[in-house]
Amino acid sequence: MSITTINSSCTPAGGTASRSWPQAAKGVSAPEKLALIIPTLREAENIRGILDHVRSVLDPVGIPYEILVVDDDSPDGTGDIVSAVALDDPRVRLIVRKGEKGVAGATLLGWRNTDATILGVMDADLQHPPELLPALISAILAGHDLAIGSRYAAGGSLGDWNPARKLLSAAALWAAIPVQRKRIRAKDPTSGFFMLRRECIHQVRLQSSGFKLLLDILVRGRIRSVAEIPFAFGQRHRGASKATFEVACDYASLLASLYWERFGFHRRAHSSG
Ligand SMILES: Nc1nc2c(ncn2[C@@H]2O[C@H](COP(=O)(O)OP(=O)(O)O)[C@@H](O)[C@H]2O)c(=O)[nH]1
Ligand SMILES: [Mg+2]
């Protein structure tokens, strides 16, 4: 299992972030900045569309932002498309990882390569509606540490998933209940669409394998308050899902380490102390 930590501030890679940002809109304090990570693996058919869509939604919000596409060396030209967009808009940046896979690690790498105060992540395939981004930002600016795009909050939905996938998702949620702190327990701790304050994971050790970074953050991060904003999980725009049996194994490994920390080591330490 690979573990990684985030520092409270980072030097942006590639020098592309040393530009001056536009003035923040009224109500948004100047030093705030959002870094939105879009992890990609073979998303050539989706990436230009999602970048255009996200920028059209974020521009009117007025918060300084950058979008970091962290691509695991996709052979379909995803990276070339992002590079072309980045030439025209320096708020778009590409990070290419070689020899590694996994959404959690890609997201953490993106967050390490930005100095933004608000960190976010969303998928490239339009299953996460960009229209939800302003509500997530507002929740953070209103004082929540973590804002989750939630399929399970009232008003949200899983879309057209088949019964087997719904059952698996419900099992994953059920398994995550005992390890979460009651006060901040989330209805959708396995969502891949969320934002948080950078300081909440400053030097926190997080598991970089697998897809389910949010649960790790909920358990190990310094999260005091959570907002869940409902959304309907959309249909993949183009291409195929990369969710595999290996992803399920990574989730099982994450759960095992969280259960051990919560109910194994500490209990032993307390009972022996
Ligand atoms: N960097 C990176 N991104 C990935 C990897 N696997 C999936 N993704 C991206 O993560 C997002 C969600 O993946 P997806 O296959 O749609 O998962 P699903 O929605 O659960 O079916 C998409 O943007 C994918 O391109 C990976 O190994 N590395
Ligand atoms: Mg998807």
Summarize the SSE layout with pairings.
Blueprint: E1 3-4, E2 34-40, H1 47-58, E3 65-71, H2 78-88, E4 92-96, H3 103-112, E5 118-121, H4 133-141, E6 146-150, H5 163-176, E7 194-197, E8 206-207, H6 213-220, E9 226-230, H7 245-272
How does this model look, in words?
It is a single chain. This protein is α/β, with parallel strands linked by helices and 273 residues long. It has one domain (30-272): Spore Coat Polysaccharide Biosynthesis Protein SpsA, Chain A (Alpha-Beta Complex), CATH 3.90.550.10. Helices cover 34% and strands 15% of the residues. It has seven helices and nine strands, in the order ββαβαβαβαβαββαβα. The protein has helices spanning 47-58, 78-88, 103-112, 133-141, 163-176, 213-220, 245-272; strands spanning 3-4, 34-40, 65-71, 92-96, 118-121, 146-150, 194-197, 206-207, 226-230. A seven-stranded mixed β-sheet has the order 4-3-2-5-7-6-9. The longest helix has 28 residues, at 245-272. The chain is globular, with a radius of gyration of 18 Å. Residues 9-26 have low confidence and may be disordered. Bound molecules: guanosine-5'-diphosphate and magnesium ion.
Number of helices: 7
Tally of distinct domains:
1
**What percentage of the residues does DSSP assign to strands (E)?**
15-25%
The helix-and-strand class reads: alpha/beta
Which CATH top level class fits?
Answer: Alpha Beta
Assembly classification: single chain
In the CATH hierarchy, the architecture is Alpha-Beta Complex
CATH superfamily: Spore Coat Polysaccharide Biosynthesis Protein SpsA, Chain A
Q: Quick recap of the structure?
A:
The protein is of the alpha/beta class. It is 34% helix and 15% strand. It has one domain: Spore Coat Polysaccharide Biosynthesis Protein SpsA, Chain A, CATH 3.90.550.
